[in-house]
């Protein structure tokens, strides 16, 4: 309750959906602050790493220095018709 800034009466009047949405908004707010701080630390680390290196060995893009999980995009390969048939033969008997 204190995390959301609610009194006992306000908390008692909440529906489960309203409580779920309030907790989700609260966690997104704190994650956004942490995410911003982690990006600043990564940028500072890139500057410190590049500090005495030749121009050719310096990292220009901070994402190449350290990639965060929310920056990774996963590609999903969808099999063709023959690929599905091969999977069927392999796993369905």
Question: How would you characterize the overall build of this protein?
Answer:
It is a single chain. It contains 4 helices and no strands. With 93 residues, the protein is mainly alpha-helical. It has one domain. The radius of gyration is 24 Å and the shape is flat. The termini are far apart. The mean pLDDT is 86.
Question: Short summary of the structure?
Answer:
By secondary structure, the protein is mainly α. It has one domain. It has helices spanning 8-13, 16-50, 62-65, 81-91.
Work out the number of β strands.
Answer: 0
Output the number of helix runs: 4
Q: Decide which structural class fits the backbone.
A: mainly alpha
Shape: flat
* Average pLDDT metric: 86
Largest sheet: none
Number of domains: 1
Strand fraction equals: under 5%
Give the terminus-to-terminus CA distance.
55 Å
Write the layout of secondary structure elements.
Blueprint (H helix, E strand, L loop, with lengths): L7 H6 L2 H35 L11 H4 L15 H11 L2
Notable traits:
single chain, 93 residues, mainly alpha, 60% helix, flat
């Amino acid at each position: 309750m204190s995390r959301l800034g609610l009194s006992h009466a306000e908390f008692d009047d909440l529906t489960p959906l309203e409580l779920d949405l309030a907790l989700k908004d609260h966690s997104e707010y704190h994650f956004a602050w942490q995410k911003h701080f982690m990006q600043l630390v990564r940028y500072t680390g890139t500057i410190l790493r590049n500090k005495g290196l030749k121009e050719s060995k310096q990292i220009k893009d901070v994402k190449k220095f350290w990639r965060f999980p929310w920056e990774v995009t996963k590609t999903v390969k969808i099999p063709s018709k023959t690929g599905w048939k091969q999977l069927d033969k392999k796993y369905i008997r």
